[in-house]
């Protein structure tokens, strides 16, 4: 990762992303807490998260829009617009203004898709292909680190200063990211592409995902795992309450341990990609979730810590493997559409599984459900592992240095014959 940080252009981008990722980590949970405080309803607070996820259905349209413009200026403009979208939060006063929070949450979710698609294309332009895994691994490591402090910091800021402070910090974070990225040198121009009718261009990302064997297997395998991995969002509360007989606040301790695992996974992901390839790393990430879920089926605090640590490791492995695969196997002019379509395909099953898990935990034993999650992710990981040959490992051994072979000294007779032959073969 130090290699990619030696690049001045990536260092600038990384500095800007630090500001925007800080704003993101503080905002999401704090908005839900704000709604809970205004209305007293846990259901309305949970609907805030749904409002952020709902715009995923527009991902193909967003990706098509992103791919029509140069990456750097578009990314700068998207950050400025995101900062502007947060300003209505300054008008929120009481429960009657909750609709403003929902509106901002939905628009923020839409801008998150836009920023993600634009960032994927910008990284592809700034970073050489051989350093993509390092760049993605570094960003995932920082994101996982933000999960350790961001939500707690957001809750503390809201408690101390109120919701207006959150809006102000978020606005400053995105404006800072825009200002820093503005200093980036202009990347090389996007290659010219054949313009199709807009319905065909709109579906180009999905067609590429379906037609490229490695991407197709990656999305099918990860989608299968995502259909059950989201169960854990609800099951972990039942595990803490019914299994460990502890208060719900203990979930925060487990989330912290999971964040530590995320840091480890982010740091290890580039090395795994060099050794296993992108699909192999994605397979490892999904498969690691299997023993974690099976361990959580047995209520023991030591096993619980080990399980959530392993689950934390799996998250950045899947993300880095998938994002690097997209950037390497997608033409630059299509990266925005493919990244947005992938986000929709992955986030859809996850959102569905979170809702289904919340329903199932009400009438099924959480241990049975964790066992189901463990078996399903094992199947998904195995399916991905069997296709690891579709993406070759990027690590290559350096050839051993060889001594130059010097020509043997010629004898005088050979030199004379050579000159004679050269004279005879020369044109007159």
UniProtKB/TrEMBL annotation:
Residues 390-428 are annotated as: Disordered. The chain crosses the membrane at residues 12-35, 47-66, 98-123, 167-187, 219-239, 251-272, 279-298, 304-326, 338-360, 366-385. InterPro entries: MFS (IPR011701), MFS_dom (IPR020846), MFS_trans_sf (IPR036259). It is a multi-pass membrane protein. GO terms for cellular component: plasma membrane. It comes from the Bacteria. Gene3D superfamilies: MFS general substrate transporter like domains. Residues 1-188 form the Major facilitator superfamily (MFS) profile domain. Its main location: membrane. SUPFAM superfamilies: MFS general substrate transporter. The keyword Hydrolase does not apply. This is MFS transporter. Keywords: Cell membrane, Membrane, Transmembrane, Transmembrane helix. The keyword Membrane applies. Pfam families: MFS_1. GO terms for molecular function: transmembrane transporter activity. Coiled coil: none annotated. It is found in: Cell membrane.
């Amino acid at each position: 990762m130090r290699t990619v940080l030696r690049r001045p252009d990536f260092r600038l981008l990384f500095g800007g992303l630090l500001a925007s990722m800080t704003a993101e980590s503080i905002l999401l949970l704090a908005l839900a807490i704000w709604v809970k405080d205004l209305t007293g309803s846990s259901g309305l607070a949970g609907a805030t998260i749904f409002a952020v996820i709902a715009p995923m259905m527009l991902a193909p349209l967003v990706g098509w829009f992103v791919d029509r413009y140069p990456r750097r200026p578009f990314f700068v403009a998207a950050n400025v617009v995101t900062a502007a979208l947060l300003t209505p939060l300054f008008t929120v006063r009481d429960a009657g203004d909750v609709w403003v929070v929902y509106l901002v949450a939905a628009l923020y979710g839409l801008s998150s898709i836009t920023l993600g698609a634009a960032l994927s294309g910008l990284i592809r332009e700034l970073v050489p292909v051989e350093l993509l895994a390092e760049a993605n691994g570094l960003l995932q490591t920082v994101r996982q680190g933000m999960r350790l402090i961001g939500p707690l910091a957001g809750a503390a800021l809201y408690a101390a200063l109120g919701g207006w402070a959150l809006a102000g910090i978020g606005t400053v974070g995105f404006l800072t990211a825009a200002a820093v990225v503005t200093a980036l040198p202009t990347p090389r121009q996007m290659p010219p592409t054949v313009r199709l009718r807009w319905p065909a261009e709109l579906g180009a990302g999905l067609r590429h995902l379906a037609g490229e064997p490695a991407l197709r297997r990656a999305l099918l395998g990860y989608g299968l795992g995502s259909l059950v991995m989201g169960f854990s969002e609800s099951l972990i509360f039942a595990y803490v309450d019914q299994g460990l007989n502890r208060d719900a606040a203990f979930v925060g301790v487990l989330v912290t341990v999971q964040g530590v695992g995320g840091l480890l996974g982010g740091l290890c992901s580039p090395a795994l990609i060099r050794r296993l390839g992108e699909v192999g790393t994605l397979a490892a990430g999904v498969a690691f979730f299997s023993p974690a879920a099976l361990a959580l089926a047995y209520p023991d605090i030591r096993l619980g810590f080990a399980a959530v640590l392993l689950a934390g490791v799996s998250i950045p492995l899947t993300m880095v493997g998938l994002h690097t695969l997209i950037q390497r196997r997608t033409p630059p002019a299509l990266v925005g559409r493919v990244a947005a379509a992938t986000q929709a395909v992955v986030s859809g099953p996850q959102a569905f599984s979170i809702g289904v898990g919340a329903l199932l935990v009400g009438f099924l034993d959480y241990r049975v459900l964790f066992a189901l999650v463990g078996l399903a992710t094992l199947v998904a990981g195995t399916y991905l592992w069997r296709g690891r040959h579709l993406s070759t490992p990027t690590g290559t051994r350096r050839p051993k240095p060889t001594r130059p072979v010097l020509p043997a000294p010629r004898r005088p007779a050979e030199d004379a014959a050579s000159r004679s032959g050269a004279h005879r073969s020369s044109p007159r």
